[in-house]
Specification:
The chain contains nine helices and no strands. By secondary structure, the protein is mainly alpha-helical. The protein has one domain (about 20-180): PgpA-like (YutG-like, Orthogonal Bundle), CATH 1.10.3760.
Length: about 190
């Protein structure tokens, strides 16, 4: 009667499509649509680009959501919000996240990991939209509605800010191309 050998763990293999699909699915499950994020992008950029269309905003949000760093932040933040709703965090952390403690700040740090992909314009847009909380951000930030969105409100603002930055960089490249200049802006 010998001891059974533990089965070898299968090697880890990341499935990028599953992660991308899960990101969109979990945003939807938490009540956030691509269109609502695109409305924030329009809010941020329409003053600078009066001919900007909602379709362009949606496209840029979708492009931001293809980035692995963004997907990781979205899924991590949503998971932490869900764990807080379920009371599954250690007590001190539970209270801070469940109450969106103003001095906690890790929710903003996670959002910064998203805007960091898109440069300084992303950071300034994020700060602006985070302060004003327009559109979907107002609902996500409303503590009386029930769900914990401590991370999600900042993540959604960061996605919108990143899409706004992406638009600004692309519009600059378009202007340079129209003038016959070579654009140095890389694909983001």
């Amino acid at each position: 009667m010998g001891m059974e050998q533990p089965k070898a763990k299968a090697p880890y293999s990341l499935n990028s499509k599953k992660v991308a699909d899960a990101t969109k699915e979990w945003l939807h499950k938490r009540g956030v649509t691509t269109e609502q994020i695109a409305e924030l992008v329009m809010f941020l950029q329409q003053k600078y680009y009066p001919n900007l269309t909602m379709e362009e905003c949606i496209h840029n949000v979708e492009q931001v959501l293809t980035k692995r760093e963004v997907q990781n932040a979205v899924l991590t933040g949503i998971q932490l919000d869900i764990l807080a709703e379920q009371g599954m965090l250690i007590p001190e952390l539970q209270d801070m996240i469940a109450n969106d403690e103003g001095l906690y700040g890790v929710d903003e740090i996670l959002a910064f990991s998203i805007v960091n992909v898109y440069g300084s314009i992303g950071f300034t847009n994020y700060g602006y939209v985070d302060k004003l909380k327009p559109g979907i951000l107002e609902r996500l930030n409303d503590k009386t509605l029930g769900p914990c969105n401590t991370f999600l409100d900042d993540i959604v603002g960061a996605i919108a800010a990143s899409a706004s930055s992406r638009i600004a960089h692309r519009k600059q490249a378009e202007r340079e191309k129209e003038r016959g200049e070579e654009s140095l802006d890389s694909e983001r």
